[in-house]
Amino acid sequence: MDFASQGLRESATFDRATIHAIQRAAETGIYDIRGWGAKRRVPHFDDLLFLGASMSRYPLEGYRERCGTDVVLGARNAACPLRLDTPVTIAGMSFGALSARAKEALGRGASEAGTSTTTGDGGMTPEERGQSKHLVYQYLPSRYGMNPDDLRAADAIEVVLGQGAKPGGGGMLLGQKITERVAGMRTLPVGIDQRSACRHPDWTGPDDLEIKIRELREITDWEKPVYVKIGATRTYYDVKLAVQAGADVVVLDGMQGGTAATQDVFIEHVGIPTLAAIPQAVQALQELGVHREVQLIVSGGIRGGADLAKALALGADAVAIGTAALIALGDNHPQYDAEYRSLGSAAGYYDDYQDGRDPAGITTQDPELSARLDPVEGGRRLANFIRVMTMEAQTIARACGKAHLTHLEPEDLVALTIEAAAMARVPLAGTDWIPGAVR
Amino acid sequence: MAALTTPTVIDLAHDSVRDLNRALHQAGPGTSWRIEHPDGAHNVAVGLTEDLDVVIGGPVGYYGAGMNQRATVTIHGNAGTGVAENMMSGTVRVRGSASQSAGATAHGGLLVIDGDASARCGISMKGVDIVVGGNVGHMSAFMGQAGRLVVCGDAGDALGDSLYEARIYVKGKVKSLGADCVEKEMRAEHLAELAELLKAAERDDAPADFRRYGSARDLYHFKVDNSAAY
């Protein structure tokens, strides 16, 4: 039905999704919990363009001249930094939120592509460790499954202060997914709604964190790089404090970053866009004199090689993908559309990662559903995607005359909107105007 | 139990914490160690993995004996934040008092604090046994998942807030209970396990003088009726 031709007008303030949200809240009496990340439109990498070479810049031959992609993470203090073939890493996602087969697939794909994957709340599984050449072990407020043997078995340690989907919030895993194995790893009763802590239990500020990081280094004999992950909020200050606390790598997760289960109001209304956060982080690193010495990994809405190239041009050393990695494995695939619809969703819209009935078998602990994901095939698909991302970024970098992806720089970028120009601190296209910049 | 051998002495007045931990990580099982002049240093004797006997001859700072596995560590003084945090096994004894977050997230082993323990003692405990000779501060056993916390003195505000399956025994007064924490009946099996814990801690308190607290389990699932508690 063409509502507009009937003279019907949808309210911009009370649109259909808003009306539905009010009705749902009135019926259930509890806030909406879902997965995915922010769905609202915010200034993003789409609002930036590259200035390719022309008379004033000299491009590299697209198919012949070398454009490096390797990256070293965490060499500041660690005896064994991570040496990756591509700056595309896999973000932290838990066993519990994801099936063991999905975690294995992420490890296989990352290893095939020469990059790292990351554990999540709930500890390290043998499937993931076994299939991951480079495995980053998350050290979270809940400390579920936290085992010093796993710390020592990891290739890097990521102290998680927050994530972009919910800065200031702890993890959540609803009872449907707390199976016997998940419960056992987390020392919890089977089937309860698990609430992770939002603050670390044994330190409360940056001065404490400095001691905590030294403890982690002592326990692992100064071999492992220590990352600090923050959700994007007061990024300039948070990055400075993280570096001063001893971080070898800062992981910066913007508000578009995904989650397995969080209140919708949290996802959509807390935190700042990835685009706005990166220049703040880079400024902090530059002022401390450690830009490139302390690496910056950016996540939150990274979808392809263009986003990778733009993040690197703004000053990141690498990116992390989460939602995109799950899509590469098969999440929201059209082949499951009928099943998504039976759950009240559709392919392309499915975000109910919290309820454990994922038709693609990724965000579930149901044995029959999780059996749908072949970890070998899933790993191959993920490796393909990472390779495509990397080649896309190389295509852009060569066009900008760069012999390595990390040679991309803000000078290569312009913005399409005033908002993006102000946030990314690059000129509005066709002008030399950077809103907010002091001339 | 660590074998009794002539202890190797490491003096932190001369050697660094790095030197100390490196030596302890390389030490063979059954060896004894004495650490002189800790003087409140942080991260003393962390990440031990073997059946060592380690005596620390003074106060330690943050995370003393953190993430201990198998070793027996005795601290002859006070301990700073997070003593024996995330301990997996072994025994840590503090002859003085402990600062906040003692035994935080520890999965196993026994932590004995002869004096008082500050706020959040046993926060997110996951199987450790903690015996405190004196009082504990507010929010102790917050989100405690498993294990036993024994308090021979008084407990501060919000004891056992958001408790899972950890069990708490208190001999003295409890200023207030946290959300979902309730007093429970002290049955014979509880008296028996408490007697064992007190014996392991080398205390002569009478189990019958204690009260037991645990989770009401009302917050295990999100319910609109509990919204005031979330």
UniProtKB/TrEMBL annotation, chain A:
Protein transport recorded as keyword: no
Annotated SUPFAM superfamilies: FMN-linked oxidoreductases
Alphabetical keyword list: Oxidoreductase
Location of the Glutamate synthase domain: 75-330, 359-402
KW Transmembrane (keyword) present: no
UniProt feature, compositional bias: Low complexity: 107-119
Top-level taxonomic group: Bacteria
Record region (Disordered): 107-129
GO BP annotation list: glutamate biosynthetic process
GO MF terms, alphabetically ordered: glutamate synthase activity
InterPro entries the UniProt entry points to: Aldolase_TIM (IPR013785), GltB (IPR024188), GltB_archl_type (IPR043578), Glu_synthdom (IPR002932)
Family as reported in the entry's similarity comment: Belongs to the glutamate synthase family.
PANTHER family: ARCHAEAL-TYPE GLUTAMATE SYNTHASE [NADPH] (PTHR43819)
Protein name as catalogued: FMN-binding glutamate synthase family protein
Lineage: Bacteria, Bacillati, Actinomycetota, Actinomycetes, Kitasatosporales
TrEMBL record, chain B:
Record-linked Gene3D superfamilies: Glutamate synthase, alpha subunit, C-terminal domain
Lineage, highest ranks first: Bacteria, Bacillati, Actinomycetota, Actinomycetes, Kitasatosporales
Gene Ontology MF: a single term: oxidoreductase activity
Native organism: Streptomyces acidicola
Name of the protein in its database record: Glutamate synthase
